[in-house]
Amino acid sequence: MQLRRVVSCLVAGWVLSFMLGVSHAATTPLKVGFVYVGPVGDIGWTHAHNEGRLAMEKALPGQVKSTYVENVPEGADAERVIRQLAADGNKIIFTTSFGFMNPTLKVARSFPNTYFAHATGYKMASNVAIYQARTYEGAYMLGVLAGKMTKSNVLGFVGSFPVPEVIRNIDAFTLGAQSVNPKIRTKVVWVNSWYDPARERQAAETMIAQGADVLSQNTDSPAVIQTAQEKGVYAFGWDSDMSKFGPKAQLVASTLNWGPYYTQAVKAVLAGSWKPTDTLWGIKEGIVVLTALNPVVPPAVAKLFNAKKQAIVDGKLVMFAGPVKDQSGTIRVAAGSVMPLKDLMSINYYVQGVEGAIPR
Question: What is the pLDDT of residues 192-212, one digit of tens each?
Fold first, then answer.
């Protein structure tokens, strides 16, 4: 009888310990890490990712605890930061810039039970997913508006780094403008930085001096919008709405809404169903979001703009459909064909109408 009581007590203790452990596991938030290339206050790329992080937390109250490291250079520092986040127990880590790709893969090999998701990359692993937005759809739509609003037929584009993502956006912007105005030319100034307000301003001023009266960018600060406002030309917000920095200058902004992706990915981790996916979302999926048009845009132009946006959603408008020619006039995509996705993701040339050379 006494032995039975002892066994019963032991079993009861084990059951209680197990239940407490399960309860603790159920109430312990999932740790989620983010690595940012710029400051959260850049009003551009990093700001948009951080807004996505906050939206994810709001969608999963009490289930997650997220942390981020900002201003991480794309190099050895990135590997150190990613490795520390993994060592700290973050179950999934989002690395949000192109230059974080190889450091992410290297750390992932050391932490096979941690999940990683890299933005704008092209290399995957069993525990590394990739995700990006079809930002070129937004760039194309900005080009449509630029082609209609320009008086000089000279457009300007401030580029960050000559990686496929940025080249693709420059080309899409130019093709969008050419679709409504074959006379346009696009000038490009590279600043070799994602976030450098002084260089971005200087680049904008240079192109305005060369006759550009509508500016676009693939950089993260509002310096281009501010310069356009001061100089009396038009520009576009990029990644975030920048209208407060240039209410007269910003015709529209192509913004990024990362919240749905982050929420979906973290939900999959919580459910134990996460897989290394290759995600590419755009206007249709609500990741690329175009803000309201500036009232200065004429009604007829606004109608055309909205029609083209709907055509993208419906799959009737494909940006890189042939014929597509490069600067030399060589046909890269024949009439009746569409550029394969793998070629689009690795594009390394300017389309006809873009001036200058891509830095090597």
Answer: 999 999 999 999 999 999 999
